[in-house]
């Protein structure tokens, strides 16, 4: 029987202020433990800090619904007291899913996303392990409806990264994020990553490449509550994930690890058909620049329609092009409770972007594909 429930393949928590301070060793990490603080004498907003570095805001990450009625109120800055309770209380999160017509959700962080940009991998490992344990607790009361996606740094100690992957699975998490693009001077075509790809495939843990998780150089937050990433940057946020997926495809990661699953999260869809076309073109016509040869008669497009998934919000054009992407690879997500979220209008928006889509394909895209990949029942 086809899965007939709606799953958000991209939902979020907003981490409570004491998440890391209550759990990390203050004697070892001190002020480098992620914490909320004010921006200065003239700034009454709450900001996330690591040491003296301001790394995140509390405004737009909790502005769900404002885009429909009060878009002028959406700013990066905010105070934690204004955050919707469902962002950090599991029972309230489930109530909001019910309100929005959503059965289940894949849970990602908010403050945790730009933490991939920290330069010290030791600190990042401690932060992410703490977050993974907290996320496991968050989801544990509703295991059929909430499935967490943990976080792991993979660029400096592959052995530790594999241990973190296995620990995440032991904690009941359903996948892990890696940075959407690795640290400066490295790419996901390097041999150093091979043991991790193998471990993820064997553990059946999908790897997510979520927007705003580049390894170095997280978004810069300005004092007035605006973000250094402007509208042009946001319109091109698929650039780095294309680089990473292209490296994985062209250098044989999926050829050597056919069970590995990679998910592009919050980069939308419309760019993917042209990207697939280019992957095949250069593989066929330019073996001088695409030197790795796949087994059999396999083409890059075969890996894109077997190993790579795409979580999107409301890309109607991408839905029109769905057969060029592969219907089985598409997964809708609400992005709750962020400013871009479809909450609480998700069902209306899904009706609009799914016009003309046969019901069997619609059920896959709005829930069935995510259920199959992550084990919702």
Summarize the structure in short.
With 377 residues, this protein is an alpha/beta fold.
Describe what you observe in this structure.
The protein has 377 residues and is of the alpha/beta class. Residues 218-226 have low confidence and may be disordered. Helix 5 runs parallel beside helix 6 (194-203). It has a single domain, classed as Metal-dependent hydrolases (TIM Barrel, Alpha-Beta Barrel). The protein has an 8-stranded parallel beta sheet. It is built from 15 helices and 11 strands. Helix 4 links the parallel strand 5 and strand 6. The radius of gyration is 20 Å and the shape is globular. The chain has helices at residues 26-29, 66-69, 90-100, 121-140, 158-170, 194-203, 231-235, 239-250, 253-256, 272-285, 300-304, 316-320, 322-325, 346-353, 359-374, and strands at residues 7-12, 35-40, 43-50, 53-57, 104-108, 146-151, 175-178, 207-210, 262-265, 308-312, 330-332.
List the defining traits of the structure above.
about 375 residues; three-stranded antiparallel β-sheet; TIM Barrel; alpha/beta; 15 helices; 11 strands
- CATH homologous group name: Metal-dependent hydrolases
Strand order, sheet with most strands: 1-5-6-7-8-9-10-11
CATH architecture: Alpha-Beta Barrel
* CATH C-level label: Alpha Beta
Average pLDDT number: 93
Largest sheet: 8 strands, parallel
Number of strands: 11
Through-space gap between termini: 11 Å
Taken together, the total number of domains comes to 1
Rg from Cα: 20 Å
| Portion in helices | 25-40%
* Beta-strand proportion: 5-15%
The poorly predicted ranges are 218-226
Keywords: Lyase
Protein name: Amidohydrolase-related domain-containing protein
Domain Amidohydrolase-related: 116-376
GO molecular function: carboxy-lyase activity; hydrolase activity
């Amino acid at each position: 029987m086809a899965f007939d429930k709606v799953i958000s393949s991209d939902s979020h928590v907003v981490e409570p202020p004491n998440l890391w301070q209550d759990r990390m060793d203050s004697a070892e990490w001190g002020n480098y433990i992620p914490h909320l603080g004010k921006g200065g004498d003239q700034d009454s907003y709450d900001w996330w800090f690591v040491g003296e570095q301001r790394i995140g805001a509390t405004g737009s990450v909790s502005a769900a619904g404002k885009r429909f009625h009060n878009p002028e109120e959406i700013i990066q800055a905010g105070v934690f007291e204004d955050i919707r309770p469902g962002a950090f209380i599991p029972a309230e999160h489930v109530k909001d899913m019910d309100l929005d017509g959503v059965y289940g959700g894949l849970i990602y962080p908010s403050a945790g996303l730009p933490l991939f940009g920290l330069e010290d991998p030791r600190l990042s490992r401690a932060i992410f392990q703490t977050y993974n344990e907290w996320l496991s607790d968050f989801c544990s009361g509703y295991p059929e409806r909430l499935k967490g996606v943990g976080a792991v740094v993979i660029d400096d100690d592959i052995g530790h990264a594999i241990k973190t992957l296995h620990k995440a699975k032991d904690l009941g998490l359903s996948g892990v994020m890696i940075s959407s693009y690795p640290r400066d001077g490295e790419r996901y075509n390097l041999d150093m990553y091979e043991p991790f790809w193998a471990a993820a495939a064997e553990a059946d843990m999908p790897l997510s490449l979520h927007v705003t998780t580049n390894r170095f150089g997280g978004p810069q937050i300005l004092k007035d509550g605006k973000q250094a990433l402007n509208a042009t940057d946001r319109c091109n946020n698929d650039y780095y994930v294309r680089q990473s997926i292209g490296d994985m495809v062209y250098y044989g990661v999926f050829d050597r690890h056919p069970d590995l699953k990679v998910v592009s999260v919050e980069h939308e869809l419309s760019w993917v058909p042209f990207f697939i076309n280019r992957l095949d073109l250069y593989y066929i016509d330019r073996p001088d620049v695409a030197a790795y040869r796949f087994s059999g008669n396999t083409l890059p497009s075969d890996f894109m329609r077997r190993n790579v998934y795409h979580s999107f919000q409301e890309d109607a054009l991408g839905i029109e092009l769905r057969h060029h992407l592969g219907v089985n690879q598409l997964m809708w997500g609400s992005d709750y409770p962020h400013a871009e979220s479809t909450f609480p209008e998700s069902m209306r928006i899904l009706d609009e972007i799914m016009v003309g889509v046969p019901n069997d394909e619609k059920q896959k895209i709005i829930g069935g594909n995510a259920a199959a990949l992550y084990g919702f029942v």
